[in-house]
Write a structure and sequence with these properties.
Length: 317
């Protein structure tokens, strides 16, 4: 364990068992400064149900991550409304909230429910015990909550940590027609687990200039995941929050289509005030208003996905 004086920056090496406290006060022997020191968390070893299956078995085409490195591009909105749209077509859908902010869980009117973290700490219980049925037909949720932050703190960097989610989903994936995983706007434990568990990645992209950089970062990560852990993973870009009256929005849409030919959906999700209104009421757009433009577009997206799963392409390696 290394601690550093905050005043003179002198480094001190201490034995890991010098104290059993996670934080303590130290006095610098060089400048006599008192400062707070913190004992680093040790990465915990992960217990898997069947690591060999998780590493060798490819997730089926119906496990899909919704992700983008950039925030504010409608990831959670897309996960919820696409899930509901697939469910309206008679598909059994599991939504996995794999973001510690729990926005997807809140959007379904849920809170203080057991999470994937609880499921991982209780390997003797089936994952079904932690999946709750939503009030919408054919739609289930694996919730998130505040304790989900502990997954990153305890397991990030542990051997084979990226297979944790896939290891647990393997036990339930055949019970659902689609599993959609909502991820945070970052690249770490949660996103790496989601991508390893999925064969499909839907990348929401707002039609503005900065969003193009987020898409490129996700594409690079997908190529890395393909080489390291998941050779079958494929991706497509979904344009969201399109302002049809904005010339710049249409230019960005055209630019990204040129950059990623064959890797974008035909369906585009437009700006729609009913999306925000529905969020306030913790409702999907199509259930809030059958006249919702975005709601009907998510219905069309569901049709496009069901009809063309086999047409997804791998981005160039």
């Amino acid at each position: 364990m290394i601690i550093v004086c905050q005043k003179c920056r002198t480094r001190f090496h201490l034995d890991d068992d010098a104290t059993d406290k996670s934080s303590f006060v130290a006095r610098c022997s060089v400048c006599d400064h008192l400062f707070s020191a913190y004992k680093p968390n040790r990465v915990q070893e992960i217990t898997f149900l069947n690591l060999d299956h998780a590493r060798q078995d490819h997730a089926n085409d119906h496990v899909m991550t919704i992700g983008n490195r950039k925030g504010g591009v409608a990831k959670t909105t897309t996960c919820l409304n696409l899930g509901v749209s697939l469910a309206l077509h008679g598909k059994k859908v599991l939504l996995v909230d794999f973001d510690a902010q729990a926005n997807l869980t809140i959007s379904l009117g849920q809170k203080q429910q057991p999470t994937f973290y609880d499921a991982q700490k209780a390997l003797g219980q089936p994952l079904e015990d932690f999946i709750i049925e939503s009030k919408y037909s054919n739609l289930w949720l694996l919730p998130s909550g505040r304790n989900m932050v502990l997954l990153n703190k305890l397991y990030f960097g542990a051997q084979h940590f990226e297979f944790m989610l896939k290891d647990r989903l393997y036990t339930v994936k055949n019970q659902f027609d689609f599993i959609l995983i909502d991820t945070p706007p970052s690249i770490e434990f949660y996103t790496l687990n989601a991508l390893t568990a999925s064969n499909r990645v839907l990348i929401p992209c707002q039609c503005d200039y900065l969003s193009t950089h987020g898409v490129d970062q996700v594409m690079q990560l997908i190529r890395l995941i393909r080489k390291k852990a998941n050779p079958q993973i494929q991706s497509r870009i979904l344009f969201t929050m399109l302002d049809q009256a904005s010339h710049s929005s249409r230019l960005i849409l055209s630019k990204i289509k040129d950059l990623y030919p064959g890797e974008t959906f035909n369906t585009v999700i437009e700006m729609d005030g009913s999306l925000k209104e529905a969020q306030i009421l913790s409702m999907p757009a199509i259930h809030y208003s059958q006249k919702s433009v975005a709601g009907t577009q998510y219905i069309e997206l569901a049709k496009e996905i069901m009809a063309g799963l086999g047409d997804w392409r791998q981005s160039a390696s």
